[in-house]
Amino acid sequence: MATADEGKGASTAHKWFFETRYWLRDLILSVLLAFIVIVFLYQPVQVEGTSMMPRLENHERIFINKFVYRFEPIERGDVVVFWYPLDTSKSYIKRVIGLPGEWVTIQDGRVLVNGMALSEPYVLPGYLDHQSYPTVHVAADHYFVLGDHRGSSNDSRVWGTVDRRYIYGKAVFVYWPLSQMGFVK
């Protein structure tokens, strides 16, 4: 015949087993959900270089949304991540300036789209490049991109427009360093 202490020990072991099983289930589901979000929706990336200063600085870490452009169009002002057209083993991050079908001109550092001056509050005076560049027609399914730090950016002024198929994400959130945490505008 079993004593009360033996029954209590069996009950505690049984309770521990079920609690551990539920905890393990929740952990596995959390890891699976995080994997799905990172692989299909958001991806952490590190900014390399100074071409997007002052908004994005060298070595900042950001999340990009890899899914957004399946449901909405790329818009002027979006900060996009794409495979560098001349070497698709490299990724670049730039701001969309010219959309398909538009004409982009740069006169003394001022950007004109279809002959109209573009308002660019994200480009600070000290970050302007005061050079002029010839007018470029942005072909269908292509985008004209520029860095916000025009003086130190390798962008569409140098290597041309970016094909839509190379754009794989939109920068949405800075998460490191904590002092810079916030949405990318």
Feature tags:
about 180 residues, alpha+beta, Umud Fragment, subunit A, eight-stranded antiparallel beta sheet, four-stranded antiparallel beta sheet, 2 helices, about 25% helix
What features would you describe in this structure?
The protein has 185 residues and is α+β, with helices and mostly antiparallel strands. The chain has a single domain, classed as Umud Fragment, subunit A (Ribbon), CATH 2.10.109. The chain is built from two helices and twelve strands. Strands 1, 2, 3, 4, 9, 10, 11 and 12 form an eight-stranded antiparallel sheet that branches. The N and C termini lie far apart (73 Å). The mean pLDDT is 90.
State the CATH architecture.
Ribbon
CATH class identity: Mainly Beta
- Beta-strand percent range: 25-35%
Q: CATH homologous superfamily, by name? A: Umud Fragment, subunit A
Secondary-structure-derived class: alpha+beta
CATH topology: Umud Fragment, subunit A
Please tell me how large the radius of gyration is. Answer: 25 Å
Short summary:
With 185 residues, the protein is of the alpha+beta class. The protein contains 2 helices and 12 strands.
Give the arrangement of secondary structure elements.
Layout: H1 4-41, E1 42-46, E2 61-65, E3 79-83, E4 91-98, E5 103-107, E6 110-113, E7 116-117, E8 133-137, E9 142-146, H2 156-159, E10 162-163, E11 167-176, E12 182-183
